[in-house]
Amino acid sequence: MRRYLGITRISLPWSRRVTTQNESSPLLPKAGSEKENGEELSHVTAEFHQAGPNSGRDNNNPVFSRVRPHYRYSFMDYFLKYFLFLCNLMFTVLGLVVLGLGMWGLISKESFAQERIGSIGTDPMLILVAMGFVLTMLCLSGCVGALRENCSLLKLFSAAVLVLIIAQVLVAILAYSLQDQIGGYLRSGMLAAMVRYQDDLDLRFITDEIQSNLQCCGADDYRDWEINIYYNCSAPGVLACGVPATCCVDPLENGTVWNSQCGLGAQLLDEFTAQSVIFLGGCLGGISRWIEQHQGLIGTVGIVVLGVQILTLFITTRLLESIQWHKVYI
Known about the structure:
This protein is mostly helical. 59% of the residues lie in helices and 1% in strands.
């Protein structure tokens, strides 16, 4: 009976076949088995690295028939995925709102009319349209790419964010190096807006907001309004030698009624008399003082915005890496 059992041993599928019998101790492993296992493992590892990650989906590869790695999403991967999706969804909605406001402004002013289509290139509403369109398309690619785990859209989104970061850094460096020339550009822009003050409602609104909020008048002083054909002293209308009502110290009568004629004839007054009626200082000085007073806030906002963009780029890169590994070893 013992002889029969010894001859007919059952070989289980998962048991290792022993080529050399050890009669003294059949249950103990051979002395060289550990060494052989280590050599086989190192051999398979070398074949795996030689095959590369691109051949991970090849089921006929003999390397992966023995070793089939497995990758699972972690909690952090899911968090980054849906965090990127929600942030881009929020900014996509914001971009659509900005785009809608720009289009509403163009349509309400009839900028697409045949007589105005030639000057639509200088319409400030186009800035809102361009910003809204770029923001919508950029964030929409990141939103859909994160939700659908689309590597092409995520790569497009990360490349666009990287280009935006580089552009902002270059603009900041250029603005710092050309800060002396920026004053000249601002002065030219302010004078151009004053020339078209009565003809362009957008430029009129911007100029009024600057003058009323900064309590200033003109570019350098209140007499700069002479360059406007309606406020020039040789003009035939009632606005001749006057300034807009936003230059007035107190444009409200009795604190309730807006007095649009408070600046009439202000250019004919001497500075001592005019200072009780209008603001004498120009807006370029007011803009410079405002920048100096809020330069800390401006720098903080700029650093925060740049930091958010860098963080978004890092999250997108990390999510891309996780998606690629998951698709290779799924």
